[in-house]
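Checked the freezer inventory, then went back to the computational side. Two predictions to log before the end of the day. The first one is the construct we discussed on Monday; recording sequence and tokens without edits.
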Amino acid sequence: MQSTLLKRLLAVLIGTTLFMDGAYLISLNKIHLGTILPLLIGLGLLIFAIFYPKIQISIHKTPLRNILWRVGCLGFLLWSTSVVCFFLYLHLATQNNTQQAPVKAIIVLGSGIENGKPSATLAQRLDQAAALAEQQPNVPLIMTGGLDFREKYTEAEIMSKYVQKKFSISPTRIWLEDKSTSTDLNLKNSQPILAQLNIQLNEPIAIVTSDFHTLRAAAIARKQGYRHIITVAAPTPLINRYNSWLREYFAYGSGWLFNEF
């Protein structure tokens, strides 16, 4: 009896946390697997806790149902373990990832616009890029990102305005790659700009992105021919850090599956 009560209590606590987390971020228009999945898992745990007696009766009606239930629980446990391992891998792999070696160009990867302004995650990337640009005053910056849904200006344009206003970076140093909608295209469409600047792909090029995204961005860049990548990691805001990491878990898997890197 105590074991059953503990299971239900844990399911309520974890389920409520996950559901509220997902619902809150979705209300901010952050709709992706990293927010939808916690909401659904949380809802499932709440249903499990509330209807636990009925679920147990239904499961034990036939041996097949019992087997399927156990297999499903085992599969969910294995999947959850793989997510935790991926989170640990990201955390360890991105420690002290920011480097300040001399570079020929700084590519800043986009991360979403909210009401005409950079999202909190994107603002962190831009702050990090500006800090690097101030240390290396003659290096050009390439802002990447096309037109987001319901936005009037492209992501690259808004990124450019942000660093000009906040850090007084000269617009003559800023180049816009304003057609892309993915990391793959960000880096691919930046190559003609690099060529125009007489910068070769084997020269040191900084790629500024969020800490959780550096590994996949570097892998995609290498696949495209970039040979001297210096990844610069920007911190991810705590409010959506683990949701972003969960989204990256699926993005990393799909990127590998579709030979993106």
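The second is the one RB wanted added to the comparison set:
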Amino acid sequence: MTHRHRVLAAVIGALVLVTGCSGAGNRGSTGGYVTANGAITQVDPADRQLAPILEGKDLDGKPFTSEAFAGKTLVVNVWGSWCPPCRKEAPALKLVSDEYADKNVQFVGILVRDDVASARAFNRKHDITYPSIDDYSNRNGLGFASSLPAQAIPTTWIIDSKGRVAVRIVSENLTASTLSGLIDDVQAGVA
């Protein structure tokens, strides 16, 4: 894919995401977010594409790069404190991030369309300790456009230990057991 095509894909992806998140003209949206369709997409190991390197400032203003977690399974969640499904899935993300902390798994949030103060309050309320990138425009999320693009907020990806996109979850009802099972499958090389 040429640089021009990548830029065009990123612009189109941004327009789709921003338009979708506005809730205007979308029968499936409420409260300013696009209703997720509940889809879980698993990619066969032979067909996986490299995930983008996630970079930016964390919620404390410190530099962040996903390269620091090379060799780990990454669980990347696009979220905002304003998003009702994000609030609903926070306990499941917290539970699984704690359970898998010693299993070579790192959780990372991509905070979109939100301010840092609200995000910090959200994380304190839900006792979420894994890092999030302050990424108002979702530049990092758009990096998945060539593999499995975000279709709603929240979207969660599981990236295998080789840095490849293995799973995309677009669901308002993400449970700890579903997420744990998917991580287990990725680590076992099944999904």
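For RB: The mean pLDDT is 84. The radius of gyration is 15 Å. Let me know if you want it refolded.
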